């Protein structure tokens, strides 16, 4: 996203030889908005979507609004742990989905 550059928060300790961790952190800083966008999609579908199928225009509008939210969260991610918070939300939603599945089948 060349038109929307977010300030990088990671500075590697040595610039001559980057380790795999340094390369990953620099890549994650460069693609911050796209990572947050994917995480927002996962949180929406695991926590809020009641139907998997929506009309195409509603789906497009949903993705546009999620991308706008990802841009805002990308700006906030410079000072706040937005990506980490979304990872925790995804982990909690996965745990809830796994725990609810066996209970729902045993009641029938």
UniProtKB/TrEMBL annotation:
Keywords for this protein: Membrane, Transmembrane, Transmembrane helix
Pfam families (UniProt xref): YlaH
Name of the protein described by the UniProt record: YlaH-like protein
Transmembrane segments: 31-48, 60-76, 82-100
């Amino acid at each position: 996203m060349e038109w929307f550059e977010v300030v990088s928060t990671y500075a590697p300790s040595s610039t001559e030889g980057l380790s795999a961790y340094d390369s990953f952190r620099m890549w994650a800083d460069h693609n911050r908005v796209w990572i947050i966008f994917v995480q927002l999609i996962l949180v929406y579908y695991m926590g809020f979507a009641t139907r998997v199928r929506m009309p195409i225009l509603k789906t497009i509008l949903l993705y546009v609004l999620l991308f706008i939210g990802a841009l805002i969260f990308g700006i906030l991610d410079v000072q706040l742990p937005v990506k980490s918070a979304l990872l925790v939300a995804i982990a909690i939603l996965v745990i809830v989905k796994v725990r609810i599945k066996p209970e729902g089948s045993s009641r029938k």
